[in-house]
Prior knowledge:
The chain is of the alpha/beta class. It has helices at residues 15-25, 47-59, 74-77, 98-119, 133-142, 157-171, 205-209, 212-224, 226-234, 240-255, 305-327, and strands at residues 5-10, 36-41, 65-71, 83-86, 125-128, 152-154, 178-179, 182-184, 192-194, 199-200, 203-204, 263-268, 280-286, 296-297. The chain has two domains: 5-154, NAD(P)-binding Rossmann-like Domain (Rossmann fold); 157-324, Lactate dehydrogenase/glycoside hydrolase, family 4, C-terminal (L-2-Hydroxyisocaproate Dehydrogenase, Chain A, domain 2). It is built from eleven helices and 14 strands. Strand 10 (199-200) and strand 11 form a beta hairpin. Helix 1 (15-25) packs across helix 10, helix 4 (98-119) packs across helix 5 (133-142) and helix 5 packs across helix 11 (305-327). Ligand NAX binds at residues 10-11, 13-17, 41-43, 46, 87-89, 91, 108, 129-131, 133, 155, 158, 187, 227, 237-239, 242. The active site is at 187 (proton acceptor). Keywords: NAD, Oxidoreductase, Tricarboxylic acid cycle. Residues 6-146 form the Lactate/malate dehydrogenase N-terminal domain.
Amino acid sequence: xxxxxxxxxxxxxxxxxxxxxxxxxxxxxxxxxxxxxxxxxxxxxxxxxxxxxxxxxxxxxxxxxxxxxxxxxxxxxxxxxxxxxxxxxxxxxxxxxxxxxxxxxxxxxxxxxxxxxxxxxxxxxxxxxxxxxxxxxxxxxxxxxxxxxxxxxxxxxxxxxxxxxxxxxxxxxxxxxxxxxxxxxxxxxxxxxxxxxxxxxxxxxxxxxxxxxxxxxxxxxxxxxxxxxxxxxxxxxxxxxxxxxxxxxxxxxxxxxxxxxxxxxxxxxxxxxxxxxxxxxxxxxxxxxxxxxxxxxxxxxxxxxxxxxxxxxxxxxxxxxxxxxxxxxxx
Length: 331
Ligand code: NAX
């Protein structure tokens, strides 16, 4: 294809935006043959900083970058979007209750869902990064009735990549030799990184999982609480690794997951694995790539008792969040 792909990035002036835009413009997200046109969507206070980032993008002279425009109105920002990365969100402020957080984000993701419904391209693919990512994705999808639900996704790829890295380190193998890990549930501390089906340099992940103390007191909490550990060490939340995960997610969705492997993504549940239909939960997924590519849940995995409990607990949290945003009239 020589026709540029329209990529809208919200929160473009934020720290993830700064790490993300250059990767997209260089071709790392959609491949080396696909030109991109960037649409940056910010709130009015973020527009000037976004203009600065756009100047730097110009100064990279990326051969694949066909143009950049900047908007503070969602109807303009999502016009013709083929790929939409919803990064900007309202962070939890001091003393803010969960209901306040969900309501504040509803004020962002409801109008963005409506705008996507009205003006995005027919093939739009949406990735929600801004937290609480799963429920923000649910709000956006629910307010875009004409867009198939499977076009809306929430990012758990950073959790997935964190889990790959932890397993590789534990097993003493290169990270490229770890396959078929799964993040289940919510992108929150309740998430469940599952290595029972993994292939760790040719050995079953269940072997590593036999060390229950390591599994439950080290691996699972290290992955689930990695975001907090980064904030503690860096004095700022994950940015480059989050941007990298967003690039990976869209890359694999559009171009396909590697043969013999899968990845993790928050998707609209179709009821698979006992996860109630109509919540945005993370599953093991593959994509065949190409036009009209969808995330397909990996079928027929055997879920043991330990995994079942952990998945159910994270899913219960998602159901609570769904009920809360339903109560607020956001979905
Ligand atoms: P920043 O605060 O650096 O940037 C956010 C940007 O979004 C700001 O420039 C702000 O002006 C803009 N913004 C706010 N409301 C907007 C709206 N309605 N329309 C357009 N832009 C808007 O945050 P950053 O560190 O970039 O993080 C962005 C989001 O990613 C946060 O919600 C964060 O919690 C979330 N994360 C999600 C991760 C995941 O794995 N799903 C991991 C990393 C990150 O924590």
